[in-house]
Amino acid sequence: MSKEIRVRMAPAPTGRFHIGTARTTLYNWLFARHHGGTFILRIEDTDQSRSSQENVRQIMDAIRWLGLDWDEGPEVDGPHAPYFQSQRLQLYRDAVDRLLAQGDAYPCYCAPVELEERRREMQRQGIPPRYDRRCRDLSQPDRERLEAEGRPRAIRFAVPDEGTTSWDDLVRGRVEFQDSELDDFVVMKSDGFPSYILACAVDDTEMAITHVLRGEDLISGTPRQIHVFRALGLPLPRFGHLPMILAPDRSKLSKRHGATGIDEYRARGFVPDAMVNFIALLGWSSGDDREILSRGEMIEAFSIEGIGKSGAVFDAEKLEWMNGVYLRQMSAEEYVARARPFLESALGSVAETFEDDYVARVVLLEQERAKTLAELPELTEFFFRDPEEYEDKGERRWFRQEGAGEVLAAVREALQALDRFDDAAIESAVRAAAEKLDTKAGPVIHTTRLATTGRTKGPGLFELLAVLGKERVLQRLERAEQYIRDLG
Ligand code: GLU
Questions:
Q1: What CATH number does residue 469 fall under?
Q2: 160 vs 163: CA distance, rounded Å
């Protein structure tokens, strides 16, 4: 492609940054990076009552957390600044003035309550509810009278009665809408702010956007925008509408299917590389069967042709699996750095009081098992707190055995004698203790595990004892011996 590719992500800061928004961001970013183009972040904050600075912050945090970046936009700026629509009102007003002067738009004085009443009436009659164009043909004196009354007014686009509006969608192929089905949509609200349809079209032109990739839920706005582009004599970008993200039952993915906000996944211990890889495959495929792709591989393989037409099913289990893959292949250093905040927020000062090296050894022991970082506090709690109780099942099976106390005493003595407290030394000491007791190693290992961790499952016993350290292990064994004595 010869023309520089310019794409944008244009979120309204009215809610959380969810999976669907992340996917639109990612596809635009991948497309730009693949073609050496420009990725723009534009904040569509024209809905004054629902937009907030806090949401803008969340959007930017989420994009950055995913490891994506924008070339033009808030905090980066660029030749088309400002990148907040609320700071670009004059542009929209000029466009609306032109539409009014050309007769492509007209003032509408209908009050919201009246519109609502008429909507309901149409619904009652089984007519698809839409604006009845009451103000479209107002006479000049009527207009003047309403103006003189100081009636608030919105500006509506005068959609032609007949005709079709169509485009070659990059994902869906030819898409066609009958103009007779389009409402006379609002281009400027009575508060003087533009509607999404207008502001978005004006900015896509002003920012020289070449490709508009956005969710299919916005497709009904596209014919309206095309009318605006045409009326203003502006060139059209290419449009591509991404398939919906579906729940496993193939309904539209929503809150009731579980977490949808990127911040929720972050809090639940998913890592950015896994999220990005997973989200990339929600509607796109590299053309081969690869599931695990690095960012570089995704950029290289990304193409709009690889985006499917049908909905993409969100498979939470696959995401967990993928997160586990990324956790296992992470460098020890990164793993520890990402894990620590999870331990601290769940275990509080307990985790803060341990040496870095100890915390690192603890979490690395679980690197193979954990699917999310949020599982770590529960998996590793016994490294930071002495067990207060012993799992019931284990207690019945091991502590209530004849001679359980002697087993622990023998292990304790064998470990006490060790100078080097590492996996290999611990293993031979425990096995030697079993031999001396003339029992199998299995029960000795299980009983020791229960005594030192309170649990019946966990990482390999010898490794975990080595991490716990000699002093802690001996103390815990002694406590468990006492506990068994008390069982009587
Ligand atoms: N601002 C619109 C929204 O958040 C999206 C604009 C677009 O991508 O065209 O729904």
A1: 1.10.10.350
A2: 7
pLDDT in tens, 208-251: 999 999 999 999 999 999 999 999 999 999 999 999 999 988 88
Q: How far is CA 124 from CA 109, 127, 174, in A?
A: 24, 8, 34
User: How many domains are contained in the chain?
Assistant: 2
Residue 214 CA, closest ligand 1 atom number: 8
The pLDDT value given to residue 252: 87
Selection from 229, 169, 188, 222 nearest residue 205 by Cα: 229
- Between the CA of 225 and the centroid of ligand 1 the distance, in Å, is 12
Cα 360 to Cα 291, 380, 461, distances in angstroms: 30, 11, 18
CA of 1 to the centre of ligand 1 (A): 25
Q: What's the pTM value of the predicted model, to 2 decimals?
A: 0.92
Using the mean position of ligand 1's atoms as its centre, give its distance from the Cα of residue 11 in Å.
Answer: 5
| Structural domain contains residue 121 | yes
Q: Domain range spanning residue 423?
A: 386-488
Residue from 3, 189, 252, 255 carrying the catalytic annotation: 255
Q: What are the counts of helices (DSSP H) followed by strands (DSSP E) for the chain? A: 21, 11
Q: Among this protein's residues, is 470 annotated catalytic?
A: no
Ligand 1 mean position to 120 CA, how many Å? 27
Q: Where is the domain boundary, 191, 216, 242?
A: 242
- Model confidence at 9: pLDDT above 80: yes
Ligand 1 proximal residues by C-beta, below 6 Å: 10-12, 44, 196, 200, 214, 218
The one-letter amino acid at 216: E
**For residue 14, which atom of ligand 1 is closest to its CA?**
4
Contact 79, 119 (CB under 8 A): no
In a domain? residue 173: yes
Strands 312-313 and 245-246: parallel
